[in-house]
Amino acid sequence: MSLVIPAYNEEERIAACLTAATEQTQPIDEIIVVDNSSTDDTAAIVRRFQREHPDASVRLIAQNARQGVIPTRDAGFDAARGEVIGRIDADSLLAPEWARHVRHRFRDQHIDALTGPVMYYDMPFRRFGLKADDRLRKLLMRLNREYRFVFGSNMALRASAWRDIRDEVCQDEDDLFHEDIDLSIHLAEHHLFVGYEPNMVCGISARRLDARFRDYSDYVQRFRRTYRAHRCNRHLETVPQAVLYMIYPSLHGLRHLRGRHGDQPLCALPERVPVLSGR
């Protein structure tokens, strides 16, 4: 099993990300950090981590041909040696049992890709947020029977599935789409099944909520642009867009209030993440 981590200017968070990835109850065979022309110390921190953890199987590769998450993600997927390839962001914190749950679900040969819920580790009420996120993703899975979507910050797919869609995923050079939705649509077009594992928990940052509404809205509108570029059912875009618009005022305000009282240290995921029922 491989884990791909695209990274651009993540010097503040990449060490914590790698620590969580290397402290799994079942070790990940290789962890690939793909540096996308970072101008800070991201690459240096990864190299230091490699020296300090020589048994962790951390690889650092560079993708400098083009700026963006898609070519960086693709370079990591192409370099991966595992039969299953996980993918998270460089500010993510994997729950300790993440790899075990991923391995277990991929024993089912019907599963071609897998996704799970996320916990916002730098927000209050993290357990409540995790349960809410889990319920929303289950709802989206039920509503979108034709297109079941992976979440780019917490996903895994078979290497064989990646090879099937490798030459078809959109490169999105104008940076208009949600790259994980694009990837999911191509999986669906090849009749490759996306499963959902509620115990495949990954912590992510809520820092996107710090953005001004105009910038946040542009992010939300990526749903509309991605679906319509692929001529998908337009109703698919409405649920996630509505949810993201509804949560912005209160959570943006909470983030602003938190900032006024000084930054809090990043909160790691609890050692025992609550088990979420259902599939």
Characterization of the model:
There is one protein chain. By secondary structure, the chain is an alpha/beta fold. 41% of the residues lie in helices and 15% in strands. The chain has ten helices and ten strands. It has helices spanning 14-22, 42-52, 69-79, 98-105, 126-143, 159-165, 179-189, 213-220, 222-229, 238-260, and strands at residues 2-7, 30-35, 58-62, 84-88, 93-94, 113-115, 118-120, 154-158, 194-196, 202-204. The protein has a seven-stranded mixed β-sheet, with helices on both faces. It has a three-stranded mixed β-sheet with strand order 5-10-7. Strand 2, helix 2 (42-52) and strand 3 (58-62) form a beta-alpha-beta unit. Helix 8 runs antiparallel to helix 10. The longest helix is centred in the C-terminal third of the chain and has 23 residues, at 238-260. The model is unreliable at 260-266 (pLDDT under 50).
